[in-house]
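Internal tracking record. Fields below are filled automatically when a chain is submitted to the structure queue. Please do not edit lines marked as system-generated. If the sequence contains nonstandard residues, flag them in the REMARKS field before resubmitting.
Queue: standard
Priority: normal
Entity type: single polypeptide chain
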Amino acid sequence: MKTLFTEEGWRAVRLTTVGASEIAALFGCHPYLSEYQLWLQKTGREIKDPDENLVMRRGRRLEGVAFDIFAETKRDEIQVVRNQLPNLHWYDKGRLSSTPDGVCFWEPERWPVQVKTVTEGAMKDWSENGIPRHVRLQCMQDAVCLGVTRCLLLVLACGYGCELKEFTIQVESDFEVDAQAKAERFFEYVLADEPPPIDAYADQAFISHLPVTVGKRIDLPQSLFEEIDRWRSYASDAKRNTDFSKIARAKIQAAMGDAEEGYIGGQLVLTNKEVTKKEHTVKASAFRQLRYKGEGIDGDD
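SYSTEM-GENERATED OUTPUT FOLLOWS
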């Protein structure tokens, strides 16, 4: 355990591990963070704003309310200590780390405490369908890093009033081994300065980091033919080579930027046009469709 006194210190130690609030990205179930976006953050390409949205700011302001309500109802049973700057306790185990919102004590037990604030509608959904997977993963990692098997989850539902509900999250038997393996593999990409496999259709972080080009046409280097051949050969056996295909496709799209046509030696070899899918979503999603236009098989992807 380390005690951190500044936000700068907290940011520095987080670069070397996968935090509890980030682990769901490696399991592919984080609603706001992809593995690629996490890689951007760990390699210093993207700086995370600690107050990046209204939901997070609401959570920080109401966290104290949740602790106060809990302390009032459990005053004679449990001692609760909040974990916050300027005396923030940081726990780590291997490549995993945790800064729980608090720790509760009652002899001889010690559990991490995680606080979430939600709307009344979300609380109803959580009660009927279970705690979301990304929240459960965060709680499990909090527990693992503290060397225990349970985490106390406090959920503050806000509407016309505030209602606090308590949940006990048990660490699943295979979670620690699986999480450590995913974190080790992820940091192999970080240390090599190579991005992890990218789903360029779905990963808006990747799309937003494509370089801006002038006009819709771009002349590409001859060396990119090697990456194109890789992408086409991997795509022909997609079930075996999905990760490799995504990496090759991402490198090609990074070279093209937001250009729609790619030429090598004056010949059109690739198109990379933006496609918008509306479907039944609240917000239309966009992705770029990469197509091979040279001789041979069509490499649509």
